[in-house]
Write a sequence for this structure.
């Protein structure tokens, strides 16, 4: 039986690694290495497409790393070799300080219809604090290029809860981002990972601050974007279709070092594949991609992940999708948790969701769900 799935492609190249970043990337590369890598990615896409009997990738997301470092001609050839058709949403992630008009033209000519720009903050003070690459003036110039390039969808990523932060800083960033005519915004809280330069300098993650979160959320809403997931906002009908696959636990394939994917097979078993976090090992694989690690989620593991991801959405878990996977409604699996937290749940025929107060204690609710599912 053929499948429709999302496709994530990791581009592991960065000129400089930002001080807060724990994602896998390499900083020593040239055009020849990029082209070798892209050729290997094409091979893996077709390998996994055949393995999982995928007939169509309806969403594609090229992320990184820094995809905007790919030479425009290489990008065009790469996308052409993927032989994509029927893609509803095709996103390429860019760093605005490195994006060029030639790169954007190559994206547009190749069928890309959505650009996601990793700004993180417009404040030069805070860019310096977190070691974010790129000066403010280059960021602004890059965003001008994107805004003028005519893509159907344009998203900007920001980071909240930075060291020495304030509501005025994040509010200013939100208003600046909205000024570029975007239809989507992601605002993720700073994560300080062990082993990063930011962590080594003694930075810590901010304590929960609901007043801060509510204040910047209201600023986003005032800019015409509505919250549809804990960290994501969009204009009507402009939610990220690719990311919705993650939150709804629908089929997606991950290609490239450290990328992973999850596929639900014909017997409703969830199969996960993970690529090595090593560019050399990735490139040296044979056509059978023997470095991929496969694992099967137990039924209860899969149910928990559906709760963990789906309850992040404002509209919640899609009941029809859930029943299709597990042959029962969500709350039938967690009666004890529901009894304890019933005031925080909203349930109708279509969705099982949390109230705003419930989303504020999502992690607490998930701990109870985890205990109840016992795996």
């Amino acid at each position: 039986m053929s499948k429709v799935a999302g496709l994530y492609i990791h581009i592991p190249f960065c000129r400089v690694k930002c001080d807060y970043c724990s994602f896998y990337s390499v900083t020593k590369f040239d055009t020849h290495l990029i082209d070798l890598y892209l050729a290997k990615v094409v091979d893996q896409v077709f390998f996994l497409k055949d393995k999982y009997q995928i007939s169509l990738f309806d969403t594609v997301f090229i992320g990184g790393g820094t995809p905007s470092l790919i030479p425009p001609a290489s990008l065009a050839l790469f996308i052409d070799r993927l032989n994509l058709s029927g893609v509803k949403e095709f996103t390429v992630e860019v760093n605005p300080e490195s994006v060029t008009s030639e790169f954007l033209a190559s994206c547009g000519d190749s069928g890309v219809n959505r650009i996601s720009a990793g700004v993180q903050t417009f404040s030069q003070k805070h860019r310096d604090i977190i070691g974010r690459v790129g000066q403010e003036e280059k960021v602004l110039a890059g965003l001008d290029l994107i805004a003028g390039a005519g893509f159907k969808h344009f998203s900007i990523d920001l980071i909240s809860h930075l060291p020495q932060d304030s509501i005025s800083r994040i509010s200013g960033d939100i208003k600046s981002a909205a000024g570029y005519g975007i239809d989507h915004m992601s605002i993720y809280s700073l994560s300080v990972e062990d082993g990063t330069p930011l962590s080594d300098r003694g930075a810590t993650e901010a304590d929960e601050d609901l007043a801060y979160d509510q204040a910047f959320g209201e600023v986003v809403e005032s800019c015409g974007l509505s919250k549809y997931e804990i960290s994501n906002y969009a204009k009507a009908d402009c939610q990220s279709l690719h990311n919705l696959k993650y939150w709804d636990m629908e089929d997606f394939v991950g290609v490239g070092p450290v990328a992973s994917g999850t596929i639900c097979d014909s017997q409703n078993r969830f199969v996960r594949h993970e690529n090595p976090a090593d560019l050399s090992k990735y490139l040296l694989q044979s056509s059978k991609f023997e470095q991929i690690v496969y694992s099967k989620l137990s039924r209860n593991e899969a149910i928990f992940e559906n709760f963990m991801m789906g309850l992040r959405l404002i509209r919640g878990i899609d009941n029809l999708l859930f029943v299709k996977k597990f042959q029962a409604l969500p709350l039938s699996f967690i009666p004890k948790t529901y009894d304890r937290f019933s005031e925080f749940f909203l349930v109708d025929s279509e969705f099982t969701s949390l109230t705003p107060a419930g989303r504020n204690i999502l992690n607490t609710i998930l701990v109870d769900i985890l205990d109840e599912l016992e795996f």
The chain is about 40% helix and 20% strand. The mean pLDDT is 96. The chain has two domains: 3-245, 299-375.
